[in-house]
């Protein structure tokens, strides 16, 4: 059912709105605040503290002071903290999901899905905390022993985006806590409420003061750059655009900081003529319409073998045309608003450019009228190579379909991008699936599925899509240093 306005107001009134530093809620030193806007109406939901550089220093110093003590906490105790946080997230899933929908716009059903996904990172890394392994071996000469130890990298800076405001935080906080690292997390200024709500959960779960600090700011560069260049923080984990990621890498180089970079994507979805078209269409809907297309893993380019391209496009347009667009808190809504007016304008620019270049509009193609930042599901066909949306992330519910003839042609088209995060392949030929999966240039490949993200699997890309991996067995390694201790024998 539709959520009553009174329920929305009560939840917004209850959520913390200050900075979380050293286990305490406090205002920004300068007293600044920033507006949090509901993208479905364009109206201000609330205001939260807006940190300046002095607040950033306070948070980093708190993390630095807490690091030695937290590194000494036994792995089982760190795992128990994460499991308590996992349980609390599920107990409060109604509040967390509604809060996410209000600040980000996604339909409530998707918000519940993200709460479950986000909580799973805590459970996964609770299990990994007790499995941190080293090694012991005999030197080849026999006169020494090698002891290989794993130690926490140290205070970490975590920067998260607005499109998955809860899961992108837990995906970084989870392995940091499991490894024994303290942190300063800066959520996106557009969607800070989910992370502020999580801070209360972490405190209740027993995370010590200063171990996780959350700093919201509208001047991210002014606040974060000095912290990166300080040499105090030893790790940066960033999810966001490639352009910003490159700047952060330059800053990290000054002190040779460990980095994890989950950057832009330009995923391709390839449908071969032997694919089960019903499954391919359903997979395309998941890969394209999840989060209204505002995902780095979204299928930006859809390549369909020519013999089935027309039928695939027809079915895709029919199903996308049935999606209900509206406020995420309303019953039956499947597509919420885009995050702001700027993003909606960018989506329209890409659509207009494609149409001017010769693309055909099968569905949608114009922004919705009225309040909020809504854009209807859109299907374009016959996308020319020069169209910008063949190269740029769309971050909206726009599905561009282009026909191809041969497997080699499809692979070439998929790899014709600077990005390499994820791709999707639909075929019933196992040999072809493996050939294409190995040939496409990306960190992840989905075979006959439109969603690849899983806390138990390594998430990340190659080329301009980033460095390092999050999730899986490798996720915790990003927060660990390897120390070799040589022991001489007489």
Shape: globular
Number of helices: 14
Counting helices, strands and paired strands, the structural category is alpha/beta
Q: Helix fraction?
A: 25-40%
In the CATH hierarchy, the third-tier topology of the largest domain is known as Aldehyde Dehydrogenase, Chain A, domain 1
List low-pLDDT spans. none
| Major β-sheet annotation | 7 strands, mixed
CATH superfamily descriptor of the largest domain:
Aldehyde Dehydrogenase, Chain A, domain 1
Number of individual domains: 2
CATH architecture of the largest domain: 3-Layer(aba) Sandwich
CATH class category name of the largest domain = Alpha Beta
Cα-to-Cα separation, first versus last residue: 76 Å
Percent of residues in β-strands: 15-25%
The radius of gyration over CA amounts to: 23 Å
List the strand order in the largest sheet: 14-15-16-13-12-18-19
Mean pLDDT over the residues:
97
| Total beta strands | 22
Assembly state? single chain
């Amino acid at each position: 059912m539709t959520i009553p306005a009174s329920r929305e107001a009560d939840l917004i009134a209850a959520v913390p709105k200050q900075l979380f530093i050293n286990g305490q809620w406090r205002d920004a030193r300068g007293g600044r605040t920033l507006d949090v806007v509901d993208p479905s109406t364009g109206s201000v939901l609330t205001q939260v503290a807006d940190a300046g550089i002095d607040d950033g220093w306070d948070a980093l110093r708190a993390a630095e002071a807490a690091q030695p003590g937290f590194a000494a906490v036994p792995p089982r105790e760190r795992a128990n903290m994460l499991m308590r946080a996992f349980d609390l997230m599920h107990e409060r899933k109604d509040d967390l999901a509604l809060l996410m929908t209000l600040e980000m716009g996604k339909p409530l059903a998707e918000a519940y899905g993200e709460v479950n996904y986000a909580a799973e990172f805590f459970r996964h890394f609770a299990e990994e905390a007790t499995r941190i392994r080293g090694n012991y071996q005999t030197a080849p000469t026999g006169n020494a022993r090698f002891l290989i130890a794993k130690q926490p990298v140290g205070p970490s800076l975590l920067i998260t985006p607005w499109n998955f405001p809860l899961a992108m935080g837990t995906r970084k906080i989870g392995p940091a806590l499991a490894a024994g690292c303290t942190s300063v997390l800066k959520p996106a200024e557009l969607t800070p409420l989910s992370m502020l709500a999580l801070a209360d959960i972490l405190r209740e779960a027993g995370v010590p003061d200063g171990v996780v600090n959350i700093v919201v700011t509208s001047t991210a560069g002014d606040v974060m750059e000095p912290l990166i260049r300080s040499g105090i923080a030893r790790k940066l984990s960033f999810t966001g655009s490639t352009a910003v990621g490159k700047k952060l890498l330059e800053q990290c180089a000054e002190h040779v900081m460990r980095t994890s970079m989950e950057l832009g994507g330009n995923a391709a979805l390839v449908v071969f003529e032997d694919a089960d078209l019903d499954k391919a269409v359903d997979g395309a809907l998941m890969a394209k319409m999840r989060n209204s297309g505002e995902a780095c893993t979204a299928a930006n380019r859809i390549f369909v073998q020519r013999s089935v391209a027309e039928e695939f496009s027809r079915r895709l347009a029919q199903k996308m045309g049935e999606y209900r667009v509206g406020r995420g808190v309303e019953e039956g809504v499947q597509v919420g608003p885009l995050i702001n007016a700027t993003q909606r304008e960018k989506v329209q620019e890409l659509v207009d450019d494609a149409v001017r270049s010769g693309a055909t509009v099968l569905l949608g193609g114009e922004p919705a009228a009225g309040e909020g930042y809504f854009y209807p599901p859109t299907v374009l066909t016959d996308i020319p190579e020069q169209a910008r949306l063949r190269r740029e992330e769309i971050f909206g519910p726009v599905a561009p379909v282009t026909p191809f003839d041969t497997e080699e042609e499809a692979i070439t088209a998929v790899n014709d991008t600077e990005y390499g995060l994820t791709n999707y392949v639909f075929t019933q030929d196992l040999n072809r699936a493996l050939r294409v999966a190995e040939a496409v240039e990306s960190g992840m490949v989905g075979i006959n599925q439109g969603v690849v993200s899983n806390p138990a699997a390594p998430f990340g890309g190659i080329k301009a899509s980033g460095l390092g991996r999050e999730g899986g067995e490798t996720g915790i390694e990003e927060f660990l240093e390897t120390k070799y201790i040589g022991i001489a024998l007489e």
